[in-house]
Amino acid sequence: MFRYILRRLLQMVLAFFGTTLIVYALMFAGQGDPIQALAGERPVTEAQRAYLTEKYHLDATGVGGFFYRYFDYVRSLLQGDLGQSLTGRQIGDILQAAWPVTLKLALIALAVAIIFGVTAGVVAGIRRASIFDNSTLVLTLLVLGIPTIVLAPLAQYLLGVKWQLFPPTAGSQPTFYALLLPGIVLGSLSLATALRLTRTSVAENLRADYVRTARSKGLVKRRIVTVHVLRNSLIPVVTFLGVELGNLMSGAIITEGVFNIPGVGFNLFRGIRTEDGPLVVGIVSVLVVVYLVSNLVVDVLYAVLDPRIRYE
Amino acid sequence: MSDFETVAATENQAARRGPSGEPGTPNQIGAPQKPRSLAGDAWRDLRRNPIFWISSALVVIFTLMALAPGIFTANSPNDCLLSRQHAGPSGGAIFGYDFQGCDTYSRAVYGTRASLLVGALAALGTGVIALVVGMLAGYFGRWVDAVLSRVIDVVLGIPLLLAAIVLLKRVSSGSDNARIAAVIFVLAILGWTTAARVVRSSVITAKEQDYVAAARMLGAGNGRIMWRHILPNSLAPAIVVLTIALGSFIAAEATLSFLGIGLKAPTISWGQDIDTGRIHMREAATPLIVPSAFLALTVLAFIMLGDAIRDAFDPKLR
Q: Are residues A153 and B274, on separate chains, in Cβ contact within 8 Å?
């Protein structure tokens, strides 16, 4: 167990350096004269040039210099200093304003996935091969197969613009109601996966020995399902939902962009559109860290929750 | 969050979780069984599955559309007149005209080519990387396996969409073909891990078989055994995974184009058209709905086809 956690931790560190190195190399290396790029068309005085060279350690050239600056970037990333966007705002401030909105959206999506996905999954798992089961399988395949760039605009058009059941866009201060439709769209994918996972897990556990024992003791079906099966079946679902919360917080780029929700994904969406390099790199760096950490937490959680799994 | 990522992530998790995870090793495909071979059984299952037929038909139609779009529409996708902006259906334009006054249906038909090209080539690239890595790791085992498996773990840890955004932002200029190649390259180098794991596990099963021992006794070298005996027997599960991957690569390409960093203007792509249609949805909805439907149907066709084949070959998973 301890060795497993250690191994996962080492893997995460490797993945962290690998990804940040790629991000850094692609965005900042080999871009000609970075000082002139910063100044645009205006002339740069000698003093400014010397100051910036000193500040960003541009005098160190070659591979050594590159890694020097890379570690500089990693250090400020770890210290929470993300630099400024092209508009001059601190990226840290932008993210600080955006996180709560994204978290709210992610929680709505997660609630949707739990309420509908897990419930339907349990029913489908108990009644395997029934009409309900088969139709949920087809439906979830549909949901998993339809890309968000189709689902989000269509939901916005049909429910927001045409039938006007929901506000089509959320504003700068989104209410719960305005976040509901985007939350459902965002959560539909987690819903489908949670449903399939619950279904498989419940179906598998229903065939377990302890269920047969419980049945032969004469327990009613209701008690067997709620006490014995559910408890064991929900382990993988809980871990999935855990990692999903991390994913949802980091990845709502399309949904937030389409519904105009001022969260993290929306800022990334805007950064890409307006070619705001520093903003994109800053947000991507933070999101990668969130993604890696949430994956780690869930993997460890899984090992703790389910001792049947043996890691070498 | 984009769905291809979720699907991939879910599959990854299942794969990583090992023992209780789902998409494990499909059984030794082609291994002789008493009355019928497993492949024969699978085919019998498939023939009775309507989803298999529907998705195959869609795949055939879309492939045809990519190869010869002229069969499906007489209008040119680049014949645009601003004067008929958002005009209703007329002539060959059965779904009317879009914001730029182009034939909506014709653009969707011509958009098939880029999407399928990216999807197919990315899946092919993924397949090559996955076969090489999976074969080496599975066949040689020991430290080769240890190193390659760690590499797979690390690449799996990289979020696909975020990494693609960064990689593609770098290629901001270049010709159309260069852009298409860049998108294919990015998808292939980020998306090969799941397939590599599947190949690895099926190679591990295949190399223990009697025919491999027989080949070795006859004096065949490692290269010959891998190429002639193990490869054909571990190809089937890889092809299933790649079919599903093809669908998600198409979705990924559309998502990147939607964001404005995938395929760009002279190349017609559904992702871009969906983005334009989305912006003008209040004036006219068909320019949004038509490319959306094409994209969703294509992605679904490939994912359902792969799913149906996998179910047939490995009924345990159902």
A: yes
C-alpha B61/C-alpha B68 separation (Å) is: 10
The second-level CATH assignment, the architecture, of A95-305 is Orthogonal Bundle (1.10)
Six-digit token pair at B79?
């014949």
Contact list in A for residue B2 (CB cut-off 8 A) is: 147-149, 251, 253-254
**Residue B117 pLDDT more than 80?**
yes
Picking from A22, A105, A150, A299 by the largest number of B CB atoms within 10 A of its own CB, the best residue to mutate is A150
Confidence of residue A41 (pLDDT cuts 50, 70, 90): low
Please state, in angstroms and rounded to a whole number, the distance separating the CA atoms of residues A261 and A263: 6
In this model, does residue B157 exceed pLDDT 90?
no
Helices (H) and strands (E) in chain B, counts: 13, 0
Virtual torsion, Cα A282, A285, A288, A294, nearest 10 deg: -80
Of the partner residues A138, A161, A288, the one whose CB lies closest to the CB of residue B162: A288
Which of A235, A194, A231 is closest to A210 using CA atoms? A231
- List, in sequence order, the alpha helices (H) in B260-313: 270-279, 286-313
User: Positive or negative CA dihedral for B114, B256, B166, B243?
Assistant: negative
Contacts of A86 in chain B (CB under 8 A): none
* pLDDT-based confidence at residue B16 (cuts at 50, 70, 90): very low
Please count the residue pairs, one from chain A and one from chain B, whose beta carbons lie less than 8 angstroms apart: 179
pLDDT at residue B33 tops 50: no
Is the CB of A26 less than 8 angstroms away from the CB of B9?
Answer: no
What is the reported pTM? 0.80
Nearest Cβ partner of A147 from B158, B167, B254? B254
Nearest to B108 by CA among B120, B96, B118, B119: B96
CATH of B58-313, one of 3.20.20.100, 3.40.50.200, 1.10.3720.10, 1.10.760.10: 1.10.3720.10
Share of chain B above pLDDT 70, in %: 84
The torsion angle over the Cα atoms of residues A259, A260, A261 and A263, rounded to 10 degrees, is 120
Question: A132: how many CB neighbours lie within 10 A of its CB?
Answer: 14
User: Which helix (H) or strand (E) is A304 found in, with range?
Assistant: helix A277-305
Angstroms from A56 CA to nearest CA on chain B: 21
| Alpha-carbon distances of A186 from A107, A190, A249, A250, B21, rounded to whole Å | 10, 8, 10, 12, 25
**Cα A310 vs. chain centroid, distance in angstroms?**
27
Sequence ranges of the domains in chain B: 58-313
Mean pLDDT over A47-65 rounds to 70
Residue with tokens 């400014």: A48
Contact: A144, B259; criterion CB under 8 Å: no
Domain residue ranges of chain A, discontinuous segments joined by +:
2-78, 95-305
Q: Six-digit token pair at A260?
A: 């105009």
Cα–Cα nearest to B254, from B222, B302, B308: B302
0.90 surpassed by complex ipTM = no
Interatomic CA distance for residues B313 and B26, integer angstroms: 7
The SS3 of residue A175 is coil
Distance CA B292, CA B310 (A): 27
Given an 8 Å threshold on Cβ–Cβ distance, is B300 in contact with A145?
yes
- Asked if residues A107 and A184 have their Cβ atoms less than 8 Å apart, the reply is no
**Amino acid letter at B216?**
R
Provide the shortest C-alpha distance from residue A63 to chain B (in Å).
20
| Rounded Cα–Cα distance for residues B128 and B123 (Å) | 9
Residue listed under structure tokens 């779904």: B95
